[in-house]
Amino acid sequence: MAATTVIAAGSVVRGHLTGQEDLLLQGRVEGSVALQGNLDIEVDARADATIEAVTVRIQGTVVGRVVAREGIELSASARVRADLVAPRLVIAEGALFAGAIDMSGAPVVRPVFTAPAPVQPVATASPTGQPSLAPVGQPSLAPVGQPSLALGDDDDDPALPDGVDAKNIAFKKKK
Amino acid sequence: MAITHIGSTLVIEGEISGSDAVVVQGRVKGSIETSQGVVIENSAHVEANLTLDTLEVAGDVKGNVTAASRVEIKPEGKMVGDIKAPRILIADGAHFKGNIDMDVGR
Predict the structure, then answer these.
(1) How many CA atoms lie within 13 A of A115 on its CB side?
(2) Which range (A34-38, A43-47, A51-55, A167-171) has the least confidence?
(3) pLDDT tens, position by position, B66-94
(4) Contact assignment for A21 to B3 by CB distance below 8 Å
(5) Domain ranges, residue A63
């Protein structure tokens, strides 16, 4: 798999990308990326996309969803507003991230609502001195795969690719 | 100068645009628009409308081309579509079907 695709800094690709090789993103991608290879998103690069790859290294900006078969790495310069699914995940100090993370390792392609993992009852001291148990099988946290963002999760904006919503507007302002 | 390189296993359905040179070895369906040159290599299949400065075709191209300076179809190139460019080269052995317009009003 020596081949590497490069999308240079002055280039924009809109649509669907699929391939069996590594991709180095220096420019922009809007849409979807599905690779049997590694994806490297460089510092000034931006992806508004649904991404599937073996490993994804993010130094630039990503809005959407990232599913990696092996791992995802957010470097210090990363600006990410996306849901991340990967068995291994690194978020470096300095990286900005908003979204949901699923490291359950289930080989799911699109686990919008994954079955909640059995949660151990958590004993917390209550004022009466009686430990109150969290219900077994009920996650006490926001459901995995649900963006726990204050903004709405309306995917209705036709101008944006699937899986990307109005979330990125607030993100742009931050920039 | 930065080059956008579409590798041989890559398939893009959509549009590529920008100010980089583009080299295609894989498949592109949609459009390519750049202010620089585009090279369609031997292994490439391109079904797209192309707007660019120069074009070199050594692979398969289906679509219309508007070039600011030059289009060259290499001996191993196959092209179906209309070409609009001030300079056009078609090598011995190349396949071409379509209209050619060399009057771009410059």
Answers:
(1) 6
(2) A167-171
(3) 999 999 999 999 999 999 999 999 999 99
(4) no
(5) 4-110+142-170
- A18 CB neighbours in chain B (<8 A) are 10-11
Distant-in-sequence, close-in-space partners of A35: CB < 8 Å, separation ≥ 6: A17, A18, A19, A20, A21, A22, A23, A52, A53, A54
Q: How far is it between the farthest Cα atoms of chain B?
A: 39
Per residue in A12-29, pLDDT tens?
A: 999 999 999 999 999 999
- Pairing mode, strands A132-133 and A123-124: antiparallel
Per the listing, tokens 């609502």 go with: A113
Whose structure tokens read 């009852």? A121
With respect to residue A118, please indicate whether it lies within any of the assigned structural domains. no
CB-closest option in A11, A15, A19 to B20:
A11
- The verdict on residue A129 lying in a domain is no
What pLDDT, on the 0 to 100 scale, is given for residue A149? 45
Could you give the number of structural domains in chain A?
1
What's the pLDDT score for residue B103?
Answer: 79
Measured in degrees and rounded to the nearest 5, phi and psi for residue A126 equal -105, 165
Give the three-class secondary structure for A167. helix
> For the whole model, what pTM was predicted?
0.73
Which candidate, B14, B41, B6, places its Cα nearest to that of A21? B6
Domain membership flag for residue A31: yes
Residue of B3, B4, B12 lying closest to A15 (CB–CB):
B12
Tokens of A43: 């510092």
Beta bridge partners of A107: none
A9 within a domain of the structure (yes/no): yes
